[in-house]
Design a protein that fits this description.
Elements: E1 4-7, E2 10-12, E3 15-17, E4 22-23, E5 27-28, E6 34-36, E7 39-42, E8 46-49, H1 57-67, E9 75-77, H2 83-86, H3 89-95, E10 100-103, H4 105-115, E11 121-123, E12 129-131, E13 136-141, E14 151-155, E15 160-164, H5 185-200, H6 204-213, E16 221-224, H7 234-250, E17 253-260, H8 266-280, E18 285-289, H9 295-304, E19 305-311, E20 314-315, E21 318-319, H10 321-332, E22 339-346, H11 352-363, E23 366-374, H12 379-397
Helix pairs in contact: 5-7, 5-9, 6-7, 8-12, 9-10
Bound molecules: flavin mononucleotide and fe (ii) ion (FE2) (2 copies).
């Protein structure tokens, strides 16, 4: 993509990745892609801020060369060591051996362990500055957003915040980089929430700490390292991130995530009836068939909503495995303190019902419905299912379970 001037002397020189199927080897981005936004400040001295994944080395070097000779770079700022932002460093070091790397103390150790780089590194701390001429960079420590070594970089004269993973999202850029150049902002906001729920949510407390720390700093542009660059309304993505972080700290919104899986359709039929009951109570419900929908797309709903309905049959004495997988990820992401209801079909002994109770305990979820039924649904069971959904939704409306 064409390089783009963010502010006088400050350039976006990022690259799109439409090749990687799984971000972090885990989260699907086959259809959405992702961008690695790198930035270049060109002044009396030049500074590159963040890089890209290693297989994008040639593309990133070409982008730098649009503005200046990569060999002439003076500084390379490493906000975050994750290889999606540092993979290019090994090649860049060969090309620009005299460029000084700036990073945190923790990142210095990681530069050695990941890349064997021990020379030409300058450690920066909170509030340290780097003069480039008319531009000045200031470093803001933001540990655990996303790793312990992470920091942000603030350009003082133009008030641009290079926030790295914070305020980022999935979705390759589509020919333009700024928020005001897109008509379908909702797409990027949705992908930012999926990214948040997949990657950042566990670190919601550090996110709030970082936002609070920056609240008196004037910012004209939020320039993250994934997704849109926010110059028209930089506050928008900060507000969204604060709202999402608060799901973890203050509790989710009223709503239901219904997860179901089925082998032969019995549980599915019942799931439809349960959903009718939820709808009758006028509570919003997102429905996911866990056989087909990757957990990456489910986590945003689980993360944002106060109730979980789990419909799954018994499989070999236990819970239908694809359901266990989603619950396991919820546990790893510490999506806790939800209300949960279970329903599911069994053939002879059952077993899923017991396992879901174990999951609820592990997740700190309050199990308020737990219904295992034999075989297929008849009219009476479907009526019971709808009542279950209605009761569950009404219980959620009780003020204590949602913000
Ligand atoms: C591979 C397989 C393993 C099963 N294991 C059990 C089991 O251990 N105990 C049990 O009660 N039912 C078991 N069943 C029966 C299913 O729970 C039952 O057929 C149920 O109605 C399936 O619901 P579904 O139509 O929603 O898939 C098993 C079924 C299959 C296909
Ligand atoms: Fe990261
Ligand atoms: Fe990243």
């Amino acid at each position: 993509m064409t390089v783009s001037e963010v502010k006088p002397g400050i350039y976006w020189i990022g690259v799109n990745d439409r090749t990687t199927d799984l971000f972090e080897g885990l989260w699907p981005i086959t259809s959405e892609g992702v961008s690695y936004n790198a930035y270049l400040v060109k002044d009396e001295k030049s500074a590159l801020i963040d890089l890209a994944k290693d297989f994008k080395t040639t593309a990133l070097l070409d982008q730098i060369a649009e503005i200046l000779d990569p060999a002439a770079l003076d500084y390379i700022v490493i906000n975050h060591m994750e290889p999606d932002h540092t993979g290019v460093i090994r090649a860049l070091r060969l090309i620009a051996p005299d460029a000084t790397l700036l990073c945190t103390k923790r990142a210095e150790e990681m530069l050695a362990s990941y890349y064997g780089i021990t020379e030409g590194v300058r450690v920066v701390s909170e509030g340290d500055t780097l003069d480039l001429g008319t531009h000045q960079l200031k470093f803001v420590m933001t540990p655990m957003v996303h790793w312990p070594e992470t920091m942000m970089t603030y350009e003082v004269s133009e008030q641009v915040l290079f926030s790295c993973d914070a305020f980022g999202g999935y979705g390759a850029l589509q020919g333009a980089i700024f928020d005001d150049q897109y008509t379908d902002l909702a797409y990027y906001e949705r992908e930012a929430l999926r990214y948040y729920a997949n990657i950042v949510a566990l670190f919601s407390r550090p996110v709030i700490r970082a936002i609070d720390k920056l609240k008196d700093v004037p910012v004209t542009v939020i320039a993250p390292s994934h997704g849109l660059v926010w110059r028209h309304n930089p506050q928008r993505i900060v507000d969204l991130y604060r709202e999402w972080a608060n799901y973890a700290l203050e509790g989710p919104e009223l709503g239901v995530t219904m997860l179901y899986g089925t082998m032969y359709g019995n549980t599915e039929e019942v799931a439809e009836a349960v959903a009718s009951g939820v709808a009758r109570a006028a509570v919003p419900v997102d429905i996911f068939d866990v056989r087909h929908i990757h957990a990456s797309y489910i986590l945003p709903s689980l993360y944002a909503r106060s109730g979980v309905l789990v419909g799954a049959p018994t499989y070999e004495g236990e819970l239908f495995p694809p359901m266990a997988h989603v619950l396991d990820l919820a546990a790893r992401k510490r999506i806790r303190d939800r209300k949960v209801g279970y329903f599911g079909s069994f053939g002879w002994s059952g077993g899923a019902r017991k396992e879901i109770a174990d999951w609820a305990e592990k997740l700190h979820w309050d199990m308020i419905e737990n219904w295992e039924f034999p075989g297929g649904p008849d009219r009476a069971k479907l009526t019971e299912a709808e009542e279950l959904g209605y009761r569950f939704a009404m219980a959620l409306k009780d003020k204590s379970s949602a913000r």
